TrEMBL record:
Signal peptide: none
Domain FAD-binding: 3-331
Required co-factors: FAD
UniProt keywords, alphabetically: FAD, Flavoprotein
InterPro entries, A to Z: FAD-bd, FAD/NAD-bd_sf, RIFMO-like
Pfam family, any one: FAD_binding_3
Protein name (Swiss-Prot/TrEMBL): FAD-dependent oxidoreductase
Length: 502
């Protein structure tokens, strides 16, 4: 074997997955077709709250916060959303270009011992019961126990694995340019609708800006060139000005095609990020969706490689993440439609804009765009979970007090090692043996009497919770004797071995 897991694609999804796997001790090789370590291409431009939280869970967030710029709120089709009341330490959008995100993730991956090869392009794939072989464009093959395609919307891995990619085609043409502006808008985030389309101008770094134009009912040909003059003409047509644009760093074009892989797993081949789903970048959800795919998949694939994964654990990746991806495709289609520059849509926007001012609607849309409200289907007794209202939601970053009287500790700090955590807040009776090699037992007190959960509301603080490595709650107890923790441990962390001690 050349590696236990071969990750095809060194973008944010592939690098985050590599970090997760390596944290669990898996030998990982990332192959990337791009030759340059840093590219001018930066499709994504920010991180939402849940992505910052998963980085925080791993102790990786600080460099990203230092490099980025917080911007209050998010938006739904350019209708502003207020995140100030959301139960998260990061109720904002972090403006940070994908190039910098990739650089920081790559640095972390290399620190962890991930191997990276570039430029390498995969042109063939075959799998058997023991592993997967990938053929390289320069000749030769690599073999791994598993292969994960994180190689973008035109994924070669997805095509070679024979996975269908159904969805809807493009209905519009959007142009993107990272340029200097002599006469930029006053607002750091400028978005307007006009008779001929929409225009947005985002300020990322002093002296240059990202300009995005959208023209509806015109789909550009794949080979149609994108030049500074093309972007300038679109700006003048839509907004009546080009803002004095000059010296482009990067020019690109995209549409609103929305497609999703039929399956995220075919035997020993898996898909994540844009290889599994593409959509219009409304609300800035794409990079975040991919990174969160990686965090869901990483620990499950590592458990499978290490041999302790219970039956069906790896298949739960598709079961949990495919509906999340489908919801993003659905809401981005809605946002695209809500931006059309016609009188009927204008009337609809006014109605929806009024509804967004209602707290419940703001919270619903905000939870969706930030992914803070993602709840996996673990309830109804699935995998020994029981029926507690916390089951399936992300663990909130509550303050915890050690029983020995030490300094308070944040809940996210318990997840630094990427292991499961059985957090005893007074409801566990005795020592639960058998999972010490994969689950940490932590005993503490929680000062908060209720926990605020986006999409759920306030829930009485539990007596114990079992937290998966991805930060989602797999089991919870209200009081001593409530629920079968051993069944939940067995269901999520496999056959017991050894002794679990605190």
């Amino acid at each position: 074997m050349d590696a236990e897991v071969i990750v095809v694609g060194g973008g944010p999804t592939g690098l985050m997955l590599a970090c997760e796997l390596r944290l669990a001790g898996v030998d990982v090789l990332v192959v990337e077709r791009r030759g340059a370590r840093v590219s001018a291409e930066a499709r994504a431009g920010g991180m939402h709250a849940r992505t910052m939280e998963v980085l925080d869970q791993r102790g990786m967030l600080e460099p990203f916060l230092a490099a980025g710029r917080p911007m209050q709120g998010a938006h739904f089709s350019a209708l502003p959303l207020d995140l100030s009341g959301f139960a998260t330490r990061y109720p904002y959008l972090l403006m940070l270009l994908q190039t910098k995100i990739e650089l920081l993730l790559e640095e972390r991956a290399l620190e962890l011992g991930v191997r990276l090869r570039r430029p390498v392009e995969v042109v063939g794939l075959r799998q058997d019961e023991a592993g997967v072989d990938v053929e390289l464009d320069g000749g030769g093959w690599l073999r791994g126990e598993y292969v994960v395609g994180c190689d973008g919307g035109r994924s070669r891995v997805r095509k070679l694995a024979g996975v269908g990619f159904p969805g809807t085609g493009a209905t519009l043409t959007a142009l993107l340019g990272d340029v200097e502006l002599a006469e930029p808008p006053a607002e750091p985030i400028f978005q307007e609708r006009h008779d001929h389309g929409t225009i947005g101008v985002l300020s990322f770094e002093p002296g240059w800006f990202r300009v995005i134009t959208t023209e509806y009912d015109r789909v550009a040909g794949r080979d149609e060139p994108v030049t500074l003059e093309t972007l300038r003409e679109a700006c003048v047509k839509i907004a009546g000005t080009d803002f004095g644009m000059r010296r482009p760093r990067w020019l690109s074009r995209f549409g609103d095609a929305a497609r999703q892989a039929e399956r995220y797993r075919v035997g020993r081949v898996l898909l994540a990020g844009d290889a599994a789903h593409v959509h219009f970048p409304a609300g800035g959800q794409g990079l975040n969706l991919g990174v969160q795919d990686a965090v869901n998949l990483g620990w499950k694939l590592a458990a499978t490689v290490r041999g302790w994964a219970p039956e069906g654990l790896l298949d739960s990746y598709h079961a949990e993440r495919h509906p999340v991806g489908a919801r993003v495709l659905h809401n981005t289609r809605a946002q695209s439609a809500l931006s059309r520059p016609d009188a009927q849509t204008t009337a609809l926007r006014e109605v929806v804009g009024g509804l967004v001012g209602v707290e419940a609607v703001n919270d619903l849309l905000g939870g969706m765009v930030t992914a803070l409200d993602v709840r996996y289907p673990m309830a109804d007794g699935h995998r020994g979970a029981g029926d507690h209202p916390l089951i399936g939601v992300r663990m909130p970053d509550v303050d915890l007090l050690p029983l020995d009287g030490g300094a308070p500790e944040r809940a996210f700090a318990l997840l630094r090692a990427g292991r499961g955590v059985l957090l005893d807040l007074g409801a566990l009776d005795g020592v639960h043996d058998g999972w010490a090699d994969r689950v940490d037992l932590v005993r503490a007190r929680c000062p908060a009497r209720t926990w605020a959960i986006p999409g759920v509301g306030r829930v009485p603080a539990p007596g114990a919770v079992l937290i998966r490595p991805d930060g989602h709650i797999a089991w919870a107890a209200r009081a001593q004797g409530d629920g079968d923790v051993r069944a939940a441990l067995n269901a999520w962390f496999g056959v017991p071995a050894g002794v679990l001690t605190g």
